[in-house]
Amino acid sequence: MNIPENLKYTKDHEWIKVEGNIAVVGITDFAQSQLGDIVFVEIETEGETLDKEEVFGTIEAVKTVSDVFMPVSGKIVEANEKLTETPEVANKDPYGEGWMIRIEMTNPDELKELLTAKQYAEIANA
Fold first, then answer.
1. pLDDT in tens, 64-74
2. In what order do the strands lie in the sheet with 38-42?
């Protein structure tokens, strides 16, 4: 299982990468493997400001439908359009081309509450 050291993680299996005041968010390799083949990604919250742990979208896989949650509070400034056309990219490259949203963070202090790669690995391997 791939858990990059340079990212932060949530207990709900989202990852976040901070680039200045913008944060990129996606689902982890563990999450995509548990979901199975992803067939549809819906993110209708672009332009909205949401609180930490609010649902920003849904992922539909062959086996199930799952909500995806905000790792920190902020305004969703971009949704990955590629996932509309080719949702399976979230399976193939969850930390790269399969990113889901970009957030303009409103409370960067919330990053301190997220998990390190080591802490996340303990949850994912439990």
1. 999 999 999 99
2. 38-42, 55-61, 65-69
